[in-house]
Fold Steroidogenic acute regulatory protein, mitochondrial.
Amino acid sequence: MLPATFKLCAAISYRHLRNMTGLRRQAAVAISQELSRLACRSAGPGAWINQVRRRSSLLSSRLEEKPFSEAEMSYIKQGEEALQKSLSILGDQDGWKTETVVDNGDKVLSKVLPDVGKVFRLEVVVDQPLDAVYSELVDNMEQMGDWNPSVKEVKILQKIGKDTVITHEKAAATPGNIVGPRDFVSVRCAKRRGSTCVLAGMATTYGAMPEQQGFVRAENGPTCMILRPVAGDPSQTKLIWLLSIDLKGWLPKTIINQVLSQTQVDFANHLRERLARTVAVSC
């Protein structure tokens, strides 16, 4: 005869089964059958109670799983594709030409790729630890418009799992309106591998964010930022930013090249100022 408490657990389990479908029902059925099998062994109360606890915990974790939809998996794959393409571009050291070198050591390089076009590579050192830089660029992503004049707004449209987000970014017009307002819809993913962080992204489509009046829908990607502590000084962070953008519209390449390289230099300066203010406030 089953112990009274076990009968109650079994009754509750079977009541829940009636309301379950698909994988959740299969998981619950399997665990309920296993509990019945254990009870038939006439194990002591302590033994079967521990078994119930372990399997109930397993059941709860399985029921809490939220499988990704086909659309969500597509976005995740796009983010992974952006990451792999970006790392491949940055991993090839040949063919890079210097665009700009600043007195503080910041530099912008460029390279023309057959299937992508011209890409830009910013290399800087920031006098803040990696966690502070990562937090500002990822955790506080939607606040970027507060400190980067090139950005009017960044909005997270959807989060998918722990690593992937879909964003809408409004870029401000350049001085003199040489390049008018642009906006971007992107899928972004953030990966941390040991002491190195990679933030990658690329243009995507999102039904709930059609083209906006007053903005030209531009496209970016593959693009990424790589963050890692400076060797021998973890209080500093080496930041490499691969920028690849199609601004759309009828713009001379000379103007585009000048705007994009300057945008990267300005970004580094504004990021440093933001981090300095954040540290000062927290002290």
